[in-house]
Write a structure and sequence with these properties.
three-stranded antiparallel beta sheet, two-stranded antiparallel ribbon
């Protein structure tokens, strides 16, 4: 069984904390979804959104919550929602839910008074809130069971709420993504830049010393994303014991806790092997950590978090002229497109990326397809004669 990172343990603890003030049926819902393999990161985000929804019901006097405060975290104060019966949700009117969605879109979540700028939630957060409510209501109306064998209730008001997504073809989305990824030549240039040229962009000795300590680690992180297509969370949770240099494989934990084995490009294995030799030299306390990627902290080491890895990638791509602002996910896209361009099979790519649905993987066939452009060029050439 994979060892939990401190980041993963923190998410579990936050789930427990945010469950404390929730009704019993939300407790059941979270445990059921954990058992079904939904990631703790997603469930924590759902809990944040459900807390906001219950609090809105309280503020709108639709429910009356006691004044007891169960959680104090920073400026957050959480009332007790545990008394709220599921009958309240059963009787919610569609227009009331629509009012809540309007509130989500228009609530002032921050205000920069000196500039007179008011910020609202982005559409992605609003959509996440709707997904959280849909998931809860679907569970309550289809998966629960009372003593008589029936679900807690049948009326699912959230089934009447339709998400209107912006329509675009797979080809359109693919073209947009392909305009901000690295081709195979640029991938080599980028990795060379990290190892040999990035240091020339630094301005003081502290920055140079930090780079010299972390350079091979950071190169290995970027090389593994570009040599396997792994997600940031998967990179962060790699354990040294799960690396097989001879077979060129790494055992990882996918989304939802699914165990998988990933194949690694030979050049990335070579970089990884160099880092493993350098790891205990640059991070002596790493001998006490099962995790591959660590940083010195408080006289010891701590595993790099997903956010830290994102920041590392962002730092190098921002300095590399051909990938300014490129995220780790764009590097994952770069790997996938290169795989298809080299006649890789889409089913093999699905397994390599850890996709559940091959429709997701098929996006990359659009991104890698240059036949249409060649045909258009040929047509243009013929029309000139």
């Amino acid at each position: 069984m994979a060892t939990s990172t401190p980041e993963q343990e923190n998410v579990k603890n936050l789930i427990d904390e945010y469950l404390k003030p929730m009704p019993f049926y939300v407790h059941e819902y979270i445990r059921a979804k954990q058992g079904a393999g939904l990631s703790n990161n997603t469930l924590l985000q759902y809990l944040y959104r459900l807390h906001h929804f219950f609090n809105w019901l309280r503020l709108e006097s639709i429910i009356r919550a006691p004044d007891t405060i169960l959680i104090r975290k920073g400026e957050l104060e959480t009332p007790d929602f545990s008394f709220i019966p599921y009958e309240i949700l059963e009787k919610l009117e569609k227009k009331l839910v629509e009012s809540y969605i309007d509130f989500l879109k228009n609530e002032n979540i921050s205000e920069k008074k000196d500039k007179g700028i008011v910020e609202h939630r982005g559409p992605a957060v609003v959509e996440l809130s709707i997904h959280a409510l849909k998931s809860l209501f679907n569970y309550l109306t289809t998966e629960t069971e009372k003593e008589d064998g029936e679900c807690y209730f049948d009326r699912n008001v959230m089934s009447k709420i339709v998400l209107h997504k912006k329509r675009e073809t797979a080809n359109r989305r693919a073209r947009k993504i392909s305009s901000v990824i690295l081709n195979e030549d640029e991938i080599n240039e980028y990795l060379h830049f990290i190892e040999h040229e990035y240091v020339n962009t630094l301005e003081n000795q502290n920055q140079i010393r930090s780079y010299e300590r972390n350079a091979l680690r950071d190169l290995t992180i970027n090389s593994l994303i570009l040599g396997t297509g792994m997600r940031v969370g998967e990179i962060a949770s790699i354990e040294v014991k799960n690396i097989n240099l001879r077979k060129r494989t790494i055992e990882i934990t996918r989304k939802g806790g699914v165990e998988d084995t990933v194949l690694v490009m030979g050049s990335s294995i070579e970089t990884l092997e160099r880092y493993l030799k350098d790891r205990l030299v640059k991070f002596p306390k790493a001998v006490d950590s099962p995790f591959l990627f660590v940083t010195n902290y408080g006289g010891g080491v701590t595993p790099l978090t997903r956010r830290a890895i994102q920041n590392i990638v962002n730092k190098y791509t921002a300095a590399f002229s051909k990938s300014a602002g490129m995220s780790p996910h764009k590097l994952r896209h770069s790997f996938a497109v290169d795989f298809i361009r080299n006649n890789g099979d889409i089913v093999l790519l699905r397994d390599q990326l850890g996709h559940n649905d091959i429709k997701t993987t098929s996006l990359y066939t659009n991104m890698a397809d240059t036949d249409s452009l060649r045909i258009l060029d040929k047509m243009d050439e013929n029309r000139q004669h």
